[in-house]
Amino acid sequence: MSDTFDQLISDFYAKTPLRGAFDFYQIYIFLENHLNFLSRSLETTRSLQIYWTLFPYMLSIRQLKVQLDELVNSDLWVTFELDLIKERLSNAQRKLDQLKPMILETLSTDFCQREFYHFHIMNAYGAVLSLKMLNFDLNQLTQNALFMLTELQAGNGAFRANTEGESDVRTTFAAVVIGKLTGLLNEPIFAQTRKYLMSQQSQQGGFCSNELEPHAEYTYCALAALKILNVELNAEEKSLHLHYLVNRQTKWGGFNGRPYKDPESCYSWWVLGALHILGKDKLKLVNKDLFDKFVLNCCQPEGGCGLRDKPGVEPDAYHTAYVLGGWSIINEALDDEEVCLGICM
């Protein structure tokens, strides 16, 4: 880690009172404002941005429900606290019901466009996952998904970002997720995908992409895609990847994507998700207390709001999604399928 980052976090802890929990209501409000904007946005990446917003939005609602259950089952609650959480949940559900038609129209329209030379597979990935979380019938997208994925085949089992773009483990993972949710995994387009993904294993542990350095994000994408494709790694392979992933936790509790790099909060998802896929018991190898201290304090601004990469930067939906997602994994608030797909059902 860099001396600059060390000094930043040291100064932050010295000057800031420690917090022991997320303010899920403030996170929910922050994300609701994003959804209000994105449902009307004309940005070309809006489907992916909606996914980054909707995923933690649903997680925050789930955690408000957990808080409600804990209060109901506790002898310590007072009527005011119970009524407050009930009101927040009611407001959240009402707002989601209001936004849902606009979001569904936006996402289904974006996904079904046929100008795939200007269509990015990651935007399609965001659309499919968001539609799944909103209980949209994804069978309506099967034929369009098959057309798109056929166009994006790279010839070696991988899939390109767009018809003129490069292919890697991440774009291939996105294709596998789309194939899974639209019922296409048995199509010939995925016949070589397992072989491609297995070829991206690094001898040092972790997965790389097209002979590059192994990386935590590539490792999650490869392991999740292989899990979806029902490919089982052998004991030696699992051991190598486990060693690589466990060593991504830094002395501050956060994770980095590669050795000797500063921790970044988004790797909370990539590392913990990959460990979960290798086996839930592997999460015990993480220093959870140190991780909680990092994400609850360094990634959560004073006054709530969304979550951020590190102190000194503004919160955003992307980091809110992957910090809260990683926290949910290690606190067993997501099941196997949710971890592999990156959704909250």
TrEMBL record:
One of its GO terms (molecular function) is metal ion binding. Keywords: Metal-binding, Prenyltransferase, Repeat, Transferase, Zinc. CDD domains: PTase. Gene3D superfamilies: 1.50.10.20. Pfam families: Prenyltrans. The keyword Metal-binding applies. It comes from the Eukaryota. Its cofactor is Zn(2+). The keyword Lipid biosynthesis does not apply. Signal peptide: none annotated. Residues 77-333 form the Prenyltransferase alpha-alpha toroid domain. Belongs to the protein prenyltransferase subunit beta family. This is Geranylgeranyl transferase type II subunit beta.
